[in-house]
Amino acid sequence: MSRIGRMPVAVPAGVKVTIDGAHVVVKGPNGELERDFSPLIAIDLEDSTVVVRRSSDEAEQRALHGTTRALISNMVTGVSTGFTKTLEIDGVGYRPDMDGKTLILYVGYSHPVRVEPPAGISFEVDTRARQIRVKGFDREQVGQVAANIREVRPPEPYKGKGIHYLGEKIRRKAGKSGKAKK
Fold first, then answer.
1. What pLDDT is recorded for position 107?
2. CATH of the domain spanning 3-80, picked from 3.40.1190.10, 3.40.190.80, 3.90.930.12, 3.40.50.740
3. I want to staple 66 with a disulfide (CB 3.0 to 4.6 A). Which of 5, 8, 17, 155 is the partner?
């Protein structure tokens, strides 16, 4: 049995989970998420917990067991507390800014780069620390938007300039070496 798949998902107060066969809808104070899962995996609501079970030890069901439980857990956590990804900007003259809800990045191009937040996503900018926080209730969407922002100017290996995740280790390369003496 999958260690992750065996664990029940606790449903906090204020969150409503509706299960219709393989279709799961989770509503909470932050929003509503719904998703279709494989019919091979049984999803049940018992008291205030969601339990994920599989009927056999076939490879496909074993693979789906833990994944299904983790996705449901992410849905419940998202609608109750939400998710945040933090990005840092390094480089002389590189800085983030906000124009209403739109994120504006000054990262060494001849023009500022504007990033519009999709529905369910919001940005927070700390100009002093040069950090961007991507917030939302859908974990996949938060991660994808953060990856798209990082893609605007990924960190380069020589000086480390660019946009990177908070705590991300940037692999550095040695620059040009001096002329060899004869």
1. 95
2. 3.90.930.12
3. 5
